[in-house]
# Entry
Amino acid sequence: MRVMSFASFRIAAGFAAVLVLAAPALAVEPSALESNVVVPVDGVDKTLTLEEAMAALNIPSVSLALIDGDRIAFAQAYGASSTPETIYQAASLSKFVAAVGAMRLVEGKRLDLDADVNASLASWKVPQNGFDKGHPVTLRGLLSMTAGIGVPGFLGYAIGDEVPNLTQILYGVPPANSAPITVIAEPGSVYRYSGGSYEVAEALMVDTMGTSFPDLMKEVVLEPAGMARSGFTTTLPADLDREAMHGHLADGSEIPGGYHLFPEHAAAGLWSTPTDLANLLILIGRAWRGESQLFLAPQTVREMLTPQKPGPYGLGAAIGEADGVLTVMKRGQNAGFQSYLILLPAEGKGMVVMTNGDNGSILAEALIRRAAQLFDWPALGPLED
# Structure
């Protein structure tokens, strides 16, 4: 396997992006998604129209992209002047995209999945303690959340507040509003949901490649995957800020300033659209089936989509089964924005749902289950994080 330069990633971009084509007609009209949506209201499941469900859950807008027949079969946005091109905070879906970037660097022999990350970290080191004695923190552990790293999530920062840099986040010093990132369990011994793990992975990628994380992800993931409306950023430029959705709390009130800032890029800092994320899922599915190796090699994707003991995660997402069929799942939850992606790579089916409300996960899960009924998916079990 050869070492890949930034130039070779640029070359790959032209090939990967053209794979996402228009879909043949669905057997069921996509508008059927807008009815018979089952959501809990006051503790009781109710069957509502999509519009009624949005109102009941205080969700101003929802945008979705449906994958069927290994193509984007349907993309639509509902409410609050949203269109399929409108961007939302992807929240923890950022982790999946960051993991894809890390695996491209692994494939290019710039990173090692099983090496001690402290051997390559320069700006900060994982603090050593009794937990990691004889059990180093590795990239595999970070991406699968089995590295024993603490800090499950991040609150974000109000617009106008001082925002920390990555080193301040890792050390947990002001202006960071999160705890220091440390090892709190023996690496490899337990699964713990960990946004902190992804900030360590971010530092590893930045230190190794010598460039900013947003620029690196644009180079190795977003451009090659045709994700033209996506970017890792703390503060949106003025032109995109005008087009971005504003987040809303569970009672429907808008977050002051429109949204929180997330300098924790790998863990929570992606802005994107369902269509862009669906483009990426299609490439992952094709590689998993061995039909393409332009973006990632099949063996790399199969490793990503294999659960890493002792947890439910592969490298970047939860891995489960739908009626015996491999299922890739990731939930995203930032203040005011909730989202979900699901991929059945063997079936060429899946869906991405993004909302700008704190009850959005409820609606996203309901829409995914409705899609499963309508478009002949294998029976879904519990939807993991």
User: Anything to note?
Assistant: The longest strand covers residues 325-334. The domain at 6-374 is CATH 3.40.710.10 (Beta-lactamase). The CA atoms of residues 36 and 297 lie 40 Å apart. The chain has one domain: 6-374.
